[in-house]
Amino acid sequence: MSFMYFLAVLIGPLVKILYSFIGNYAATMIVATLILKLLLFPLSIHQQKSTAKMSVFQPLITEIQQKYKNDPQKQQEELMKLQQEHGYNPMGGCMPMLLTMLVLFGFLGVVYYPVHYIFGVDNAAVKAACEAIGLATTNTSTMQTALIQAIHNGASIDPSIISASVVAEIQNFNTSFFGMDMCDVPGFHLTPIAIFPAIATVTMFVSYFITQKLSGMDAQMQGSMKVMMLVMNLMFVTFCFNAPVGFSLYYGVSNVVQIFQSYVTYKIYSPEKFKAQYEAELAAKRAEKKKKRTVTVEQNGKQVEKEVTLGEANKLRLEMARQREAELYKDERTTPLNKD
């Protein structure tokens, strides 16, 4: 699953730069979380707009699905026509969710492999350093944080494996937060450090339900989609207990910011406002299609004016184009091939 951590390549250096100013790993993670949530905020607006649009077009989609339930090909054609005519993309709200998930995995990669992503040490060198000082290397998810703790406790690393300058950086890397080490893995134990995954769990549930309600997604998502979203959030909660506690700190802060963003988004860009806007646009387009217009057509060799709707006008144009094409190629179809 390491491919899911690819954003850690960007998040790791960001953490390192911020740490150079802040000087504390936990505080750096909080600031990095706030920065990334701020950068992702426009996507939250986009998702809210997509949800509002979904609420307007869902009845039309259902109508098409019922009307052509026995003709899947025609059903698909009509759905595509609906999307093209009105610029509606049913997958428009998925991209923000996908990117948010990838950022979560990016942070998870940073807290799992901080020596690699923050200090730029090759994973093979990290493993060799751990083996040299007798650290277990079977669990790669905790191996690098264990190496940081060992160096903090005075372990000596061969400069041929990891350079002395990098070891000095790691030695001065402050992972303490209120007397607790952000490299520790809380597990499912009643210890002081378990407060971080506990807070992350509570804020996850609060954030999930508030976001669903305020964004209007709760009314639009199918039951299976709701279950999938909840399962994904529970998966990240599980990571909070089994990953170094730095991830719990990120996830908890991210959830709190998400709650705040949901309220701000709702106040400024309410789903009701967007829904009314899209309903007005849809009504205007429908009215335009029904509006009569004058077109000139040829009937029995004479030019005749007709009052037609936009849809009827398009059909007439198509018929005339076919007639012109038939006239153009009439001679080619009737002329016999020359024989040698």
From TrEMBL:
Domain Membrane insertase YidC/Oxa/ALB C-terminal per the UniProt entry, residue ranges: 25-267
GO MF: membrane insertase activity
Keywords, comma-separated and alphabetical: Cell membrane, Chaperone, Membrane, Protein transport, Transmembrane, Transmembrane helix, Transport
Pfam family, one: 60KD_IMP
Transmembrane segments: 5-22, 28-45, 97-115, 190-210, 230-253
GO cellular component: a single term: plasma membrane
Annotated signal peptide: none
Predominant subcellular localization, coarse grouping: membrane
UniProt-annotated location(s): Cell membrane; Membrane
Gene Ontology annotations of biological process type: protein insertion into membrane; protein transport
The keyword Electron transport appears for this protein: no
Topology in membrane: Multi-pass membrane protein
Family: Belongs to the OXA1/ALB3/YidC family.
Name of the featured protein: YidC/Oxa1 family membrane protein insertase
Protein source organism: Gemmiger formicilis
